[in-house]
Design a protein that fits this description.
Blueprint (H helix, E strand, L loop, with lengths): L2 E5 L5 H12 L6 E2 H4 L15 E10 L8 H7 L2 E11 L8 H11 L6 E4 L14 H23 L4 E2 L6 H6 L2 H9 L8 E3 L8 H5 L5 E4 L2 E4 L8 H5 L5 E3 L16 H7 L15
Parallel strand pairs: 1-2, 1-3, 3-4, 4-5, 5-6
Antiparallel strand pairs: 7-10, 8-9
Length: 282
């Protein structure tokens, strides 16, 4: 069974889940969605994305603002053929409009989503803080059980739908109109990022960005309004110099314990060869 597992991950939750699924399905290495969407010269061009086909295709990603990350939505729209499709949400647990959006996007492509799974993982939205370590461990243990279900389901090519909260309250009342409106403006929300004087000009923020939204000017990050709100730049800054608004200073950063910064850099379009020291004009 030819299987490819794709993922989008900023702090490692979805990457850790995708890795385990791919390994247990003998699917080889999980494939980074940002890298799957680059063109021949290795650059990311949303206007010119390659088609995606496969016998069995799986996607693992988080939920942003109760919906699908923009880059994952673009990726889904590039899938042109698959015999079996499965989707795994590895976010905070509340799917909001996410499940409905996925099904709608596949339907527009003439494809059917065969299985949908919800694997709650520790929240990594820094302004709200991170769960305590005991709660994280409970979620990791539950995720391990959920992955067993996912692997068994995919191997048998069975249909499956986890509880997704796709009723009227979950998709209209709980997410709310502000979330739905805000989701549209995610690319420009990087205007809330700032850099403290503690910045060491290491360039890691630029290297981990999944869409090349960050350049360096005098060694310090500049955001260019194609943001995914993944918070990789903030979460992986080794000195916590990047802030988002007024709520992140002193707040614990979160990374999945089995994922390191090199894994995230390797997931970005430029991969591990990115030159962190290169400056770009504002």
């Amino acid at each position: 069974m030819d299987t490819t597992v794709y993922y989008f991950s900023a702090t490692g939750n979805s990457l850790a889940v995708a890795r385990e699924i791919a390994q247990r399905l003998d699917a080889g290495e999980a494939v980074s969605i940002p890298q799957a969407l680059v063109d021949g010269d290795g650059s990311y061009d949303p206007a010119n994305l390659p088609a995606v086909t496969g016998e069995v295709i799986g996607i693992v990603c988080p939920i942003y603002m109760h919906n699908l990350p923009h880059i994952v939505a673009r990726f889904v729209q590039q899938i042109t053929a698959a015999d079996y499709l499965f989707f795994v949400f590895a976010g905070g647990g509340e799917l909001g409009n996410g499940a409905r959006t996925v099904r709608r996007l596949f339907s527009r492509r003439g494809l059917t989503l065969d299985a949908l799974f919800n694997v709650p993982m520790p929240s990594n939205y820094t302004p709200y803080g991170a769960p305590d370590k005991a709660s994280r461990q409970d979620q990791f243990s539950a995720a391990a059980d959920a992955i067993t279900t996912i692997v068994d389901t995919v191997q048998s090519r069975s249909p499956h739908t986890d509880s997704t909260g796709t009723g009227f309250v979950a998709t209209h009342i709980f997410p709310g109109p502000l979330y739905r409106l805000g989701h549209r403006f995610i690319p420009k929300m990087d205007g809330n990022f700032t850099v403290d004087d503690t910045c060491t000009k290491c360039g890691i923020c630029r290297q981990v960005c999944p869409v090349g939204n960050i350049t360096l000017h005098d060694g310090r990050p500049v955001w260019h309004h194609t943001c995914e709100q993944c918070f990789a730049c903030l979460q992986w800054c080794p000195v916590h110099a990047i802030q988002y608004g007024k709520k992140t200073r002193g707040v614990e950063r979160y990374h999945h314990p089995e994922v390191n910064v090199r894994d995230i850099i390797s997931s970005a379009p430029d991969g591990p060869e990115t030159s962190a020291e290169q400056d770009s004009p504002v």
